[in-house]
Amino acid sequence: MKKTSLWKDDTEASFYPPLQKDLNVDIAIVGGGITGTAAAHLLTLQGKNVALLEAWEIGGGTTGFSTGNLYATVEERLNKLQCKFDETTARAVVSSRSAAIGHIENTVREYAIDCDFHRRPWRLLSETETFDRFLQQEYKACLKTGLDAYLDDSAPLTFPIRKALRIENQAQFNPMRYVKALAAQAQKAGGRVFEHTPVLHIKEGSPNILYTENGTVTANKVIHATHSPKGVRFVHTLMGVYREYAIAVKLNSDEYPEGIFWVMGKPHQHSIRSYTRRTGENYLLVLGEPHKVGHKKDNEACFRNLETYIRARFDVKSIEYHWSAQNYRSADGLPYIGSVNDKAGIYIATGFATDGLTYGTLAAMIISDLILGKENPWSRLYDPRRHNPLKSAGRFVKENAHVFMDYLTDWPYRAEAKSVAGIAPGEGKTVVLKGEKFAVYRDEAGELHQVSAVCTHMKCIVNWNKEQKSWDCPCHGSRFTVDGQVIEGPAILDLPKKAANHPR
Fold it and tell me: What does the pLDDT look like over 128-142, one tens digit per residue?
């Protein structure tokens, strides 16, 4: 079984150089996922001088670990959006997301991108009568937003269902191949793409200065296309950070269902889809088991739960891939897209929940229009400065209570091990010595990797992620390697390395 996503294993690596000298550009984009590459492509086509800075590889973040599904509805559910806001808002959400899917389709056709883009139906399924009323309400909400929706008593699956809400003309693709093609087109149009170029500091002003290991980028405008914006911002207090898991399996039969399937259940739903590689091999993907980042001790159990779930419904031959990814959920159910500092020209795109491929594309469309001075029909809907306490109250209180408790449980310092001697090979634990908290990992060869356990974002204490072998911050979702290097933000700075000052 491979510990990577199917998309990454079915896509050729890209080889863009790291930044090696100082640059002056119109626009600097931090992050080379679907938001960043789509924005770079759109802006370079309009003649803008763009630098795209990716800390790892193009598509190597959340985009490369996503579902590859594109749909106009949302995980939040349209009926809930209508109740929280109004019918006009829900219709605007559907209209904007449909436009983003159309943009992807048009881009694929224009550049003949080989990314397995196909229009497919989306289905929300119930296996028991528990969700009958809910499906009926969601069906009515879909019709009010103009979606081509139907209620069915069956679905093209090998296990029985009770009801299915079906929406036609949604889509699927290989997101890694798509974003790599966008980066190539952006470069072809005159943009500059840099991989393995983490941004270490951003000095906001007029102009903005982005600092990296080997040079600075001076830019009139900056787009944070990093899933969660870098640095400390108010918007971080309005989001909950969750991790979700996926496996790709082979079946003993050729009965691989086509389409997007969301199967409702308690305590959470599962997402199912099929994919055929260039080699002709078929795979069935199942995703689910969400939990707050840094709040689950045995995250490997999530893969075992997924395997149990899919084996109960399909004749599974083998488990071929497994991976996990992070998502950020906004307080009111809508993402934050747009400017957070008009004077400095700072733009963010975050809070997509699990709907990120479509919202990421939409974010690129909105932000590009704002930068180019074009009117966009959805910019006010997703404005990151819109905070509405009445519509955000429930989730805002819930998420920030979690953050407060994470601070509280680490005061006074709480150690998982009294000394490093109790840390087994392949294991990570926090250790307190002389009032300082260490995050210590012992590798399979017995060598210790010691870094500060204090997150460089807002000083929470990191927790060990057994499945990813990473240090994860339970407050705002920053993640670090065993040697302290930032994997994903909002943290910018690495965890400081600590010299061994105690017995091994």
Answer: 999 999 999 999 999
Pairing of strands 479-480, 486-488: antiparallel
Residue 328 CA, distance from chain mean position = 7
Judged by DSSP in three states, 350 sits in: strand
Asked: is 420-488 a CATH 3.10.450.10 domain? The reply is no
> Strand ranges (DSSP E) for 54-162?
69-70, 118-126, 149-152
Q: Does 420-488 match 117-173+241-326 at the fold level?
A: no
Return phi, psi of residue 198, to 5°. -70, 140
Q: Taking a C-beta distance cutoff of 8 angstroms, is the pair 234, 389 a contact?
A: no
Q: Note whether 89 and 381 are within 8 A (CB).
A: yes
Q: CATH fold of 117-173+241-326, please?
A: D-Amino Acid Oxidase; Chain A, domain 2 (3.30.9)
| Global pTM value | 0.91
Residues 477, 466: Cα–Cα separation, whole Å: 16
pLDDT at 399 over 60: no
| Per-residue exposure over 262-298, b if at least 16 CB sit within 10 Å of its own CB, e if not | bbbbeeebbbbbbbeeeeeeebbbbbbbbebbbbbee
Measured in whole angstroms, the distance separating CA 286 from the mean position of its chain's CA atoms is: 17
Q: Where are the domains of the chain?
A: 117-173+241-326, 420-488
Q: Give the model's pLDDT for residue 400.
A: 56
Residue 267 C-beta-side C-alpha neighbours within 13 Å: 4
